[in-house]
Amino acid sequence: MTRTKTKKKSTARVPESPATPVHTAPSIPALLEKAQSLIVQCDYELAQRFITRILEQQPANAEAKEMLGVVQLEMGEIEAARATFSTLLPPNPDAPNPPPPSAHLYLAQLSEDDPGLALKHYQAAIEILTVQLKGKERAMDSPKDDEAELKSNIVRALVGQVEIWMDPSYDLCFDPAAPQTCEDLLASALQTDPGNAEALQALASVRMSQERPEEAKQCLEQAWSAWKDLDIDDPKLPPIPTRLALVKLFLELALFPPALLVLHGIMASDDQEVEAWYLEGWCFFLMSEQAQENGGKLDDLTWQELATDARDCLATCEVLHTNEGHPDTPLLEHVKELVAKLDALGIKPSPVGEDDREGEGEWEDADGSEDGDGDGDVEMA
């Protein structure tokens, strides 16, 4: 019997298959950063999806909960936002210690029907922020921007309390202690952050309610001078609601040129801002009335030109209000009232294709500065 030859083991190497790529899930910080960027871009639905992913992994993540509350607010889900912010405060077992002051600030704004509760939330936020500020002041290497933000938030909470005390729709307005309480709150705000624009504006509003217009003008001039020369993308620029509030005060004091300049800055940032168009139309309307009282002209513009500018602005406001489903019904009613008055005067909208508001150029000089003397100042008198 012959031997059977054994087969030699093959030494040929089997080609290796390419390595399968390993996909790692995004980290929580990466998801938070993405959600925040989407909120800035106003893509709230997509932001909510990222926030949901975070909370699935970390149900008690305070930063994600706060973002969720903001998103719900922006999407009009008021009760859901209220519930979300409440989970960040005791007695909720998952509430962080100390709770974020922002939760108190949001809930204060959501407590319009209960001024007592709103005041308590503002006070709670102030107490937490004050402790944080003292910690920053003791830490020599703490960033100055963080300290400035803490001071700004404390002032905002103090001003929020003043607004509640001054609101005529609440009984607090008629409390004998209201005037002194507002004075004390504003003194505390200006002690916390001297020269703060929001505090100065609130003080101007108080002075106007006290029929002290000259002091109110001084406060407004000081408030505006702190930021009027900043670029439109400067983070130190007050938020649009604060600037709109300043415009209203300017209009109450018949300070039309600075009112228009502030409005132009707002529209450079957001030309779809309904209230800005309304206030610009209202400003031109008041200027037209003043021109009629002064012989038919105001700063080389006829009352008819100013009235036409008002008509155009109000028409734009009405369109934006309708298209955006803006919730401010009284604003729209006032717009319609003003338009009816202009129609009765024979004022029609500018023809399509024509520069709607030629008169605006009158508030800029040849080198593009926002006033006539070249130093950035507008006469407040």
TrEMBL record:
SUPFAM superfamilies: TPR-like
Statement: the UniProt record of this protein carries the keyword tRNA processing: no
Keyword list, A-Z: TPR repeat
Domain of life where this protein originates: Eukaryota
InterPro entries reported for this sequence: TPR-like_helical_dom_sf, TPR_rpt
Skewed-composition ranges (Basic residues): 1-11
Acidic residues bias locations: 353-381
Chain spans, region Disordered: 1-25, 346-381
Residue windows of the TPR repeats: 62-95
Protein name (record): TPR-like protein
